Here is the input.
Amino acid sequence: MSNNVDQAISKLPGPLAEQVARWWAEFAPKSGDTALEESVAESLPTVWAGSEYVARQCLRHPEEFVALQPRLLQSADRAAFAAQWQAAVEPVEDENGLMQALRRFRHREMVRILWRDLAGRAELEETCRDLTHLAETCIDGALDWLYPRFCDQYGTPCYEDGSPMNLVVLGMGKLGAWELNVSSDIDLIFSFADEGETRGEGRTLSHGEFFIKLGQKLIAMLDQQTPEGFVFRVDMRLRPFGDGGPLVTSFDALETYYQAHGREWERYAMIKARVVAGDRAAGEELTTMLRPFVYRRYLDYGAYESLRDMKGMIAKQVRRKGLEQNVKLGLGGIREIEFIAQVFQLIRGGREPALQERQVLSVLHLLQEMEVLPEFVVRELEAGYRFLRDTEHRLQGYLDQQTHDLPEEEADRLRLAHSMGFENWQTFFAELEHHRQHVHNHFEQVFAAPQSVEDENENIFYDLWHANLDDDPARRALEEAGYQQPGTILQRVGELRDSRLYHSLSTNGKSRLDRLMPLLLGAAAQVDDPDITFDRVLEIVRTIARRSVYLALLVENPLVLSQLVKLCQASPWLSRYLSRYPLLLDELMDVRSLYAPPARAELAEELASELAAVDPDDHEQAMEALRHFKHINVLRVVAADVSDVLPLMKVSDHLSWIAEVILEQGLQQAWRHLSERHGQPAASRDSGELGFAVIAYGKLGGFELGYGSDLDLVFLHASEDQNEMTDGSKPLAVPVFYARLGQRLIHILTTHTPAGVLYEADLRLRPDGASGMLVSNLTSFEGYQLNKAWLWEHQALVRARGVAGDEAIIDRFDAVRHNVLGRERDPDELRREVVKMRQRMRTELAKKEPGYLDLKQGEGGIVDIEFLVQYFVLGYAHRYPALMTWTDNIRILDTLAETGLLNETDVEKLKDAYRVYRGHAHRMALLEQKVLAREGEYEQQLMDVKQIWDQLFRE
Here is the structure.
């Protein structure tokens, strides 16, 4: 194989070939007659050229290298490392022997890992994973050897039940993320589960004392320099209080520290924390305990500012120490890619558990899937990360030294370029700069402050907020910006700046509000109604001021602030909605989804997915999830509505779909709650159906739901046996079970939680109204409708439909509805009753204000059209069953034209008036005004409806 090696050496660049040839000449006699594997011989010059460390290890232990050859050609998993360690530790008898075994093991495995890396046999992921497995094996191996000997000497730390308690070793940074580099420190935190005393016959210690001694010895085993070198440099500065804190702390002490003293950079560090040695089961409990510190339940946009500050500190260090050519810390370096991934983890990880991932590349791909980062950005960041990490490994692997600086000597530059697969330094450096430029550009896009301090100082609104302007210049500045009442705006600004609210804010909160207010003054000045809009947004700012994460959201995202201003200009209802539910500000981040409300199937899928992530036993959290779902999707509808993206009828469709899917899932939640306690009716157990249905009347029944509408509901069940019991350990009579199911659903809809209520529910349309049973048996419901119901109840049935629950019951309800609506009625009697009822409603309910008309209850208004439709259904459905197909007024009107009961001209007039009135009602709801119109407004529509009414109902 000597010829193969010599030939491969001859292909190296001259300076590299000379050095490798000298090493080979020294190595060949030491290896004896043992032949090298062909592939090993061919790759040897490339590997030695790239790593003097590997060459020296081969020269020092040629017999070990020859024996290592088969393993150079194959990858290894954690079990393979463990097996190699067991063989290495078996003859160890004392601590000196352990130290020697650890170092020899480490050198041997490093040779294997670096060989595969430099020979092109391992991708980046394998190299990082193997280095991590090596570190874990050494930590775990040393701890396993030391722990029983310490127990013999000091007694055994135990849990209350007497089972032994071991040290928990958390690996931080790259060790925790399986991303360890070739010559990396290992950042560790030591902890133990419970305080107590060791148990033994001789000397005993407190658990804290025992584990501190054990931790100190473990560090020495790994970190201490001996003639064989060290295993890993151990860095314990990430522990609570750093070098000033105890080496080992209990779980409770660790949790208390992070709750009381934890800083933003410690959250960042904890993202990658993982149990790497010791008591792994206890360690998993610890990481679960600490997770809320790292990942907040809300979207934490303050992370931008925190990581930007950290990067700023690093940049100062880079300039001070001349580290511009540092591939880790310099511009476009590894740290910038890590910050991009981790800022989104800190922001979204509490709400998106998938992002609670440790590896940078995995996080980047998740961000692409979530459409947080575009595909081309992730592609360029991944390419940059791989190139930079490979460069880092080549730099460190040459002498097994911790360095990230590009070399300055020509020979070292040539060596690095060659090990990276380039012919010369210039081509390598050009590729490196290409990647670093991409990375830094993307970093700047993510982290660029929307307005720097220098910009703010040049901004008139900055001076205005900080009271750096006298009143007259301040008023002129506001007037020139477009404000109509500058004095009032100046007063509002001063009231907030001088308020107890402002002065009670944390330093961080004040800083963020100081940055936000000039931006808000400028943004509100861009819309048509700046004074009113500023007031509306200011109320939201007051609401969120103590939750500075929302201030950070508005400061860090100019798009969010502009969308907030735009929406608040359009609707005081919406601004109040956002003020009441500030979590919705997060939704302003994504304009694509904000103005594109999902269809019914997507809504159902979205809600089911959100509830699937909630613990089935956590009923309160499920109720919160339902409310959050409603708020988000109503916001999308309103945003699309005020932006004229959705026509009126589609607005009502979307609002109705939201209510329907909430009722479906709410019913499932109620069923689960009841059936867990009391079991199920036999019919439900056998069929898998609920035997229960929700019938919607009124606006929801007619697909005409508006903002803030109540839900008119009726509950039906199919059980006929009054004495039948459910099959649970606490059985109930089935009618009682269904009554409680209805009660539970109402509870889910109407209970006030931190996220408000879902809907107000009105059940007065059930048989016998408020005095009737909450849930009716289908048979009794049918009997009531046929024999006892008033005419107005049959009118209400026109707009009734099943929206949730058992399809079989909904089908039976439809049959009852058709049977009732399709009865032949005396036309004269029907006409008299409809007119009489309409006159009474108009007298009792119509709003009379000078100069205004009531578009709902007044003559020619919405209710007149509804009564017209109901009259035709009740009077003619026995002849034209198609009139019972639909529950919404527009499609019933179309059917009246198709049947010839009304001419097409009159139908179009009624439809046009109905749409106009409903559109006005929607606008008034968003403006928080009554459904009134000025006299003379909608004159044509009102006249058209009156004429058709009079033609039909005149005596």
Notes: Residues 451-458 have pLDDT under 50 and may be disordered.
